[in-house]
Sequence to fold (336 residues):
Amino acid sequence: MRSPTELAQVFREKQLKLTPQRQLLFGLLHDNDSHPTAESLFEIASKQMPGISLRTIYQTLGELADMGELQLVDLGNGAMRFDPNMGEHQHFVCGSCGAIHDVDITSAPKLRAGSAEGFAVEEVGVVFHGRCDRCNRPSHGEQISRNTKRSPGLQAKKIKQVKQAISN
Amino acid sequence: MRSPTELAQVFREKQLKLTPQRQLLFGLLHDNDSHPTAESLFEIASKQMPGISLRTIYQTLGELADMGELQLVDLGNGAMRFDPNMGEHQHFVCGSCGAIHDVDITSAPKLRAGSAEGFAVEEVGVVFHGRCDRCNRPSHGEQISRNTKRSPGLQAKKIKQVKQAISN
DNA sequence: TTGTTAATTAGCATGACTTGCTAATTAGGG
DNA sequence: CCCTAATTAGCAAGTCATGCTAATTAACAA
Fold:
């Protein structure tokens, strides 16, 4: 995502109004590598601008995504994540603290010959699961700070499957 | 997933009742590589057993997943997919017809040194996007048979992002 | 400054997907 | 064949996100 100043320029050019709400979000998203949800942005924004509506957050995020300034990341953890990092990168999900980190890979995975005859691959998404450096340090117990309010269900079962894979 | 006969055995051992509903689902899932949703299984099951409830479908799928007979696959397309193929494999999503195919990769993607110092990777998920062989054949136009009823929203925007990546 | 028009807000309804709850039914061992 | 635990159906509820309306506000241009 471009800087708030550049975005202001872009919005002006597109005849979109530079409202305080939008500017606030530009600031909150700029250089933000925490992969926030709409809800978490709403909470933070509300502190600086009480009364701002969740609807406006969704609207602005949607606009930025349409403009190619934001990447939408759905890791199946309940809510959509917003990633201002538009460079090519992949994601690492910590099974302990739930944090999502941007990572790079040495080379794109390739299909094994014969497993997809005639398939044209155009995009590859990779998600790593494991433990991030912080959670990997000794003294650090299992935290399981799930940052989703979703009730346990298929999502939880899937996470359980991942955890089983992790503990192998 | 094991065969219906083997599953029957397992259920008996676990003192779980072998109801017609469960047996029907065993059959529908056995060797099923279509990555069905709960809803689509419900529709098929309803034809053979009118009156069966969607709740029962979810329940039985959940039980099978807990027993390690099913893999849950969330590709961010709205609904959870159920995959009886428990072998290690990855997925290919056709951007044209929406089909999901099982594929293999030659080697697991590796983190680039420095991009995740101290991270312990334990599981890697890879999703390919592109066009499957059928849609890739000449004569075959854009189909966009989205098999989700979800209203256009973030999900749709994400798909749009993928399609843009595909058309580069 | 004023006018135009877009943007925001509030509030509620909807929609998709999944789970929770409860009462009624059923399977299968004795 | 009966009994009891397990299963099922059916509906309500919960989460995330969007649609819609009407009223208000505020940005920008003239």
Q: What stands out?
A: The longest helix of chain A spans residues 54-66. Chain A touches chain B through 56 residues (CB under 8 Å). The longest strand of chain A covers residues 120-131. Confidence is low (pLDDT under 50) at residues 144-151 of chain A.
